[in-house]
Amino acid sequence: MGIDWDAVCCEALASHPFPGLPDGVSLPALPGAVNTFIERSADPEASARELGSIVESDSGLTVELLKFVNSASFAGRRTIGSVSQAISSLGIRQAKMFVISAGTKAAMLSTATRVINLNSFWNEVLQRALFSREVAQAGKIAGDIAFGGSLLQDFLLPVLTSVFPDEYYEFLKLAREEPTDLCEYERQVFGWDHATAAAHVSHDWHLPCELTCCVLHHHQIPTVVTNPQLGDSPCLPVAISALLAGQMQQEPNGEARIVQIAKSTGAFDLAAICETVDEQQEEMANGIRIEFPLTRRFEKFLSPEDSPEETAAQTA
User: How many helices (H) and strands (E) does the chain have?
Assistant: First the structure.
């Protein structure tokens, strides 16, 4: 029996209240075509042609979708020249995840903030999403949901750092001096954290409940692992991907914790996933240099012979 995401989401949001941002603060908005696509794709009678016409009303979304389906990720398939063909090829569920992802990127990059370098930030977000998808697929978990959940996990941080620059500069100062957990800091300063805020906004946007749950729990690995419904869901690879380092230094010693998870569980081959993610990200980075590829960052943790499978066998 599958997860009742609606029920899980409502219960989780009720236990993590968010009072809202101060009056006058403008939240990013999803492009109109994305909202329309989400609404129509919920109808089982909606055709690829109809959904394609919605995407085609937004030229940027059209370009992103066609570039994606003709990328190396779909190597070996024939060249796809129309949006309706792209949607048929992906399937409506995966197409919806892509459209949401592209819309989130547009909303995220439309925010002005002096705390975050947005181009680098987007590449960090993309890296986490690709990593999450690979970890999910290794565990036979829905990779498309994990990918979308990871793309969404930090989408509100540009807005929050724009509204509260002094508070986030103070966090970065503290994090340089000693390991500091971003969510704990936010809860002390604001009474809520960016994961809770982003989950409530995601719910208000009527995004799929499974994505909202991934966003809400992306810094809660112990909660996810011990929850009988979430432990084998996309929430877990999304939470693991949140351990990857980035500008905001959200999780102290996060990458060492990823290595520990890979070694102790044997659930995924970290070295192989790093190579795959680096290749995929290089293709999708739009010419922006990837300054910190995963293979280089994890080099200090993993030697070629120190694979998760061998470590698991040694400890069995």
Answer: 19, 0
Please answer whether residues 71 and 36 qualify as being in contact, where contact means their C-beta atoms are separated by less than 8 angstroms: no
Max intra-chain CA distance, the chain: 58
Mapped onto helix, strand or coil, the DSSP state of residue 176 is helix
Q: Where are the domains of the chain?
A: 29-110
**What does the pLDDT look like over 292-310, one tens digit per residue?**
899 998 988 776 555 444 4
Please list the alpha-helical segments (H only) found in 110-181. Answer: 118-138, 143-152, 157-163, 165-177
CB atoms near residue 269 (< 10 Å) = 17
* pLDDT per residue as tens digits for the range 156-190: 999 999 999 999 999 999 999 998 999 999 999 99
* Local confidence band at 239 (pLDDT 50, 70, 90 cut-offs): very high
d(CA 160, CA 171) in angstroms, rounded, equals 13
Cα(88)–Cα(55) distance, integer angstroms: 13
Q: Is 206 left (phi over 0), alpha (psi -120 to 50) or beta?
A: left
Nearest to residue 104, comparing CAs of 63, 156, 67? 156
